[in-house]
What does this fold into?
Amino acid sequence: MIDWEHNPSRTLPAKLKRRMTQWRHAAPAIISGDKFHVSFTFDDFPLSAVNGADIVEKHDGKAAFYACTKMIGETGPYGKMYDIATMLDLENRGHEIGAHTHSHMDCALTDRLTVLEDIKTNLRHLAEAGLKNRPTSLAYPYGETLYDTKKEVFEQFDLCRGILPGTNLGKVDLAQLRCYELNGNPMTENRAKNAIEAAGKTGGWVIIFTHDVSDEPTGFGTTSKLLTDLAQQAVSLGATLSTPTQAAKEFGVIA
Ligand SMILES: [Zn+2]
It folds into this structure.
């Protein structure tokens, strides 16, 4: 069973632990400001996230979908989840399919070996589904991990993404990249807009993540209109809308 209700602890010790993990870079790299990329990413992922792919394509870009394989064909709090045909179609359209664990576990609350085993299962299911490319990136469910875990998980990927907000510029951790969430809270909209605005001046790499995309999204998702506005804003400020792996290659931090 998927634990759709899981909510990482908001207690102070839990928050501090998250910060500590975030600060300990397992894969340090430097992102220079001479380029500007915005990556739109969709986690889990609901079928309606395909609307996100359409919007990004209209702005000459590609997006990424972090596929939790246990959710295939399920119905979650944000509606019907993806099916294999949809995922393969997105890959054919040039979007990136990334790993997101098989069972959507909180990798900060699970022992390292179990996490590694679950990721192996995730990759196996994706391969068996007919995915052409082995995923080169992973997004941590809830953005959560621990230092030893992220170090070892990173050995299997070119990049891993967390969910703590921030623009990836200067010193970054390729094992837990920063990212702006879009959800029902209007604060997240402003944060993303401001980040894109600022990166228009400094350069750098803004990653956005959300779940469902529709005219009436759940509290976990966003509207097609906001996504269109952000894509337009980014492109008008000179950004390229790239998948995380494409962006990392453009910044020269991966081969
Ligand atoms: Zn997730």
The two ends are 38 Å apart (CA to CA). The first strand starts at residue 28 and ends at 31. The chain has one domain: 26-250.
